[in-house]
Amino acid sequence: MSGQRVNRRVVLKSRPVGVPQADHFEIVESQIPELASGEFLVRNDYLSVEPAMRGWVNAAANYSDAVGIGEVMRAFAAGEVVASRHESYAVGDKVMGMLGWQDYCVTNGDPVRRKVLEGDLPLTLSLGILGINGVTAYFALGEIGQPRAGETVVVSTAAGAVGSAVGQLAKLAGCRTVGIAGGADKVRLCLDEFGFDAAVDYKDPNFAQRLAEACPSGVDVYYDNTSGSISDAVLRHINKFARIVICGTASVQSWDPWPTGPRPERHLLNKSARMQGFLVWDYEHRYEEAVGQLAAWVRSGQLRYREEIVDGMERAPGSIAELYSGANIGKRLIRLETGR
Amino acid sequence: MSGQRVNRRVVLKSRPVGVPQADHFEIVESQIPELASGEFLVRNDYLSVEPAMRGWVNAAANYSDAVGIGEVMRAFAAGEVVASRHESYAVGDKVMGMLGWQDYCVTNGDPVRRKVLEGDLPLTLSLGILGINGVTAYFALGEIGQPRAGETVVVSTAAGAVGSAVGQLAKLAGCRTVGIAGGADKVRLCLDEFGFDAAVDYKDPNFAQRLAEACPSGVDVYYDNTSGSISDAVLRHINKFARIVICGTASVQSWDPWPTGPRPERHLLNKSARMQGFLVWDYEHRYEEAVGQLAAWVRSGQLRYREEIVDGMERAPGSIAELYSGANIGKRLIRLETGR
């Protein structure tokens, strides 16, 4: 049955240095093989686009092996089981996981992260606020940031899929929240949609001054998704025992060669402060705990999110570069209409 | 009675930028005032010299206010109560604390850190292995480094008063210990006296290569007392979940202007690693716990130390610069023969 379907796949054509562009990928078609025993077929309905994908294709050392040339692009996707010879997955099950930028995924289940059980909520949320973005916010803030009521939490990429969640979770924890975002539209979104107490535009020529004004009691927690000069400015305001959560380095175009910046050691020492790298994969065993809590907040209206859904696989190759251009607002997803 | 004694005091004459030199200080004499009720008089027998004193006199932001011009140099010292109108301190009590670079200290007790109760051990130890150096090693390694048996612990300034203790405590915790020190003599001291499994000379033109060879399983804990290029080399070898304890920045001459170096963010992120500043003052409430454990290890011969005692207050003004020249081996102390 599945052998009759054509599978379009976005494969890596050449290895990028820095941010991957559309022409580092190509779309190829292939037949879907017959299912072996223990396999099932997922039809991807939504493909995810993450800033982290830059690292997944770069040759420089990272936390996982780079995607190989000619391989389908590693990506989260969500969809539905349309054929199964696997005892734990039935036709009609909704699943999400590392299913790749492609129409269909034949799998033994290993790349599936979870069945999506929140049938009352849109499937797209499993790739965003109830997926890697929300789960990242939940553990990065809760486990590394450890916010306490009354503290000031500063968030970079504050209008983004993770940053907007971090800000709202910090607010739920009783903190003063200060968002950093690029441009007036995103600053307004931080204030009006995501409830930040203050928001600062890093493109403002007086950014450092504005940041200082927004943090009259200093900074206790910094959710750092940018590195670079934005983070250097925040570091100058950290309080005693501050926690800096290193979650991304969006403002640094390349780590090869290794870029330089102001050394943090003396600041960390003087403030008994902590700078700690966060990878959501380290918390995989607690994924359902996070999703359950996040879903409850979504249902109660205490946790808001933005999505930016574009149609068609042909939008995938250029989508990582579009993320890094800073133009998008909300979680970027690609909707496929395969086989419907 | 105390009014008859002359007190020589080392006072700060001008504000240094970077490492204070002998001519930033001058020795002045004054009469000792009569004791008021609630005061007592300590005769300092030993003055301490710490790398941290650089920060105590610099104008740049630090964890404590800078010593004022004309004020006695802030310093640890140990000595004996020779007169008392304080109900908790009797003549003959041995005390240590922030008693300053001077012959005598009239005090209400606030600068005293503790009575020295280890009468079976030399008083000098209260300023070194049973003082700020040993206590720093104990909490920096135990609380921030959190070494586990079988892990690799790398120590900079490994032949120094704190580093040598860190290495030995890590060894007691079952770790592989790798010391970094300057010059063949200190490397030998690390191996022969302080039991490091390997020791590397940072002055070796092939330092980076030697360091890599000494850490075949990577680095789990790095006790960083230097910052700068030594630490940059270590950072390239950290393992998943590594802990970097920022305890000093001896290799950086000045933080004004703020020096640059390779950014650590991506390394910390890829390894879910932590870089944390450590100040021993944060653990003041647990000081006796540390001293008790350290004294037991000293008595059993499991914890060794080196002292370098020089005679006469006139040695004090130049002693911080001597520390930073890297020439000394062991805890630097100044012995006074006042009033004996």
From TrEMBL, chains A, B:
InterPro entries: ADH-like_C, ADH_N_2, ER, GroES-like_sf, MDR_fam, NAD(P)-bd_dom_sf. Keywords: Oxidoreductase. GO terms for molecular function: oxidoreductase activity. Residues 18-334 form the Enoyl reductase (ER) domain. Its EC number is 1.3.1.-. It comes from the Bacteria. PANTHER family: PROSTAGLANDIN REDUCTASE, PROSTAGLANDIN REDUCTASE 1. This is NADPH-dependent curcumin reductase CurA. It comes from Ottowia thiooxydans. The lineage of its organism: Bacteria, Pseudomonadati, Pseudomonadota, Betaproteobacteria, Burkholderiales.
